[in-house]
Amino acid sequence: MKNLIAGNWKLKGSPDLADSYISHLSKTKPDNCTVVVCPTFDLLEYICDKWSSEFGHLGAQDCFHEDTNYNDGLRTPDEIVSKGTSYIILGHSDRRNKCHETSELVRKKVDLVWDKGLIPIVCVGEKSDERKQNLTQKIVNKQITESLDFDNLRGPFVIAYEPVWAIGSGNTPTMEEIGEVHDEIRKLLVDLTCPTRGHNIPLLYGGSADDQNAGSILSVENVNGLLIGGASLNIQKFGAIIECA
Ligand code: 13P
Asked: What is the per-residue pLDDT across 216-235, written as a single tens digit (0 to 9) for each?
């Protein structure tokens, strides 16, 4: 499968950054990998008019878990789809840990966005103390099992393994550690689905991935792409990561 390189701008980014992406991607038109760019909703509105499918895909960050406009502040999947998105990041550690979002809520969102034709990028990952207690795989497997309804998978999905302690810290697990977790996730997905499906679910790594370490991480077996935060705020770095893929 092609690598998937996703940029999560979080609450950063600007019209200038969006313009730098448009300018770079219109020259490079990457087809070696699947590119997904996830700006804030406001910037999605800005970028979607200038976006071409030759650049890759647009994605969103999170959404409200009900199909109604009667909510305060959160965007509905319909609003997100209206901006030309095809992917959405759900269950990011910022939501799980800072907003106390449970896997049950993530699952509701996954079901809802499937109905709207979006592909969820479901994030999972252990905290530092959980890692120290050797609970990484237990936590990751539990989050995956509970964030998706494996008895009724109604659409495609992507899993992003993002150790919470690696996000924005400049630290990453070793390549062996990333490989071990991804191998176990692959086994779990094969068990929960079937070999054909389980082997074709893209598994991304995220957490201080950048243009310097992308090549090494992407060469680890069962890593099928990257979810990039900080380094996606610089098109030169993000462009270099796309080239690595
Ligand atoms: P950093 O690449 O800044 O560590 O962020 C990773 C992330 O949280 C992407 O969703």
From this structure: 999 999 999 999 999 999 99
Query: 230 in ligand 1 pocket by Cβ < 6 Å?
Result: yes
Could you state, in order of their start, the residue ranges of all structural domains in the chain? 3-244
Which of 57, 65, 126, 162 is flagged as catalytic? 162
Q: Look up the pTM and report it.
A: 0.97
Sign (positive or negative) of CA dihedral 155, 18, 79, 162: positive
Does the active-site annotation cover 176?
no
Annotated active-site residue 92? The verdict is yes
CA–centroid distance, 57 to ligand 1, in Å, is: 19
Residue among 76, 13, 74, 22 at smallest CA distance from 47: 22
What is the CB-side half-sphere exposure of residue 4 using CA atoms within 13 A?
27
In 3D space, the residue among 87, 21, 79, 74 whose CA is nearest the CA of residue 52 turns out to be 21
Q: How many CB atoms lie within 10 A of CB 174?
A: 10
- Give the 3-state secondary structure of residue 150: coil
What class does CATH assign to 3-244? alpha beta
Among 5, 95, 227, 232, which is best to mutate for testing ligand 1, by the most ligand atoms less than 8 A from CB? 227
